Amino acid sequence: MSNLKMDEIDHQILQYLIKNCRTPFTEIAKKILVSAGTIHIRVKKMEEMGIIKGSTLVIDYDKMGYSFIAYVGLVTMNSRSVNDIIAEIEKIPEVTVAHLTTGKFSVYCKIRAKDTKHAKEIIFKLSGIPGVERTETSISLEEVINDKKRLMQHIFDDLK
């Protein structure tokens, strides 16, 4: 990390893009008092360094009818089957995130569903994957922190 060549302008650019990845470079340039060309060059540099890896849209899944969130831990029969299990998980579109983990679970998934009945169907699909011994589910009541800006500030402070 310490060999990354970033300065305050880079940090400000990242802060604006984290807040809204669709913010026009001209708007960012006006706010931090540099040219739009400078923003373009700096973003391209950060992409080449691998710091910026594309951009994403934030979807309001509640408005799309998928307001139920649960986390499902998968206990596998053996570690050799994990790649096959992941291949099966990829076929379930309601699994929006999956992590390989250590400890109790081999794979930990975030699912989005329409309601509890729909979530049950998804959980049963996960439980039925060959190689899955059992699952444990936690239901999300509310997302209370989703803030990339605080971590970015901490990382930038460490780089100084």
Structure, described:
The structure is a single chain. The chain is built from six helices and four strands; from the N terminus they run αααβαββαβα. With 160 residues, it is of the alpha+beta class. It folds into two domains: 8-56, Arc Repressor Mutant, subunit A (Orthogonal Bundle); 68-139, Alpha-Beta Plaits, CATH 3.30.70. It has a four-stranded antiparallel beta sheet with strand order 2-3-1-4, covered by helices on one side. The longest helix has 13 residues, at 36-48.
Descriptive labels:
160 residues; alpha+beta; Arc Repressor Mutant, subunit A; Alpha-Beta Plaits; 2 domains; four-stranded antiparallel sheet; 4 strands
Give the topology.
Blueprint: H1 8-19, H2 25-32, H3 36-48, E1 68-76, H4 82-89, E2 95-100, E3 107-113, H5 116-127, E4 132-139, H6 148-159
Antiparallel strand pairs: 1-3, 1-4, 2-3
Helix pairs in contact: 1-6, 2-3
Question: How would you sum up this structure in a few lines?
Answer:
With 160 residues, this protein is α+β, with helices and mostly antiparallel strands. The protein has two domains: 8-56, Winged helix-like DNA-binding domain superfamily/Winged helix DNA-binding domain (Arc Repressor Mutant, subunit A); 68-139, Lrp/AsnC effector binding domain/regulation of amino acid metabolism (RAM) domain (Alpha-Beta Plaits), CATH 3.30.70.
Report the CATH C-level class of the largest domain: Alpha Beta
Shape field: elongated
Number of domains: 2
Cα distance spanning the termini: 11 Å
Main β sheet profile: 4 strands, antiparallel
Return the CATH topology of the largest domain. Answer: Alpha-Beta Plaits
Q: What is the count of β-strands?
A: 4
Mean pLDDT over the residues = 92
Structural class: alpha+beta
Strand content: 15-25%
CATH homolog superfamily of the largest domain: Lrp/AsnC effector binding domain/regulation of amino acid metabolism (RAM) domain
Instruction: Please tally the helical runs, counting DSSP H or I stretches of 4 or more residues.
Output: 6
CATH structural architecture of the largest domain: 2-Layer Sandwich
Which percent range fits the helix content?
Answer: 40-55%
Spell the H/E element sequence.
HHHEHEEHEH
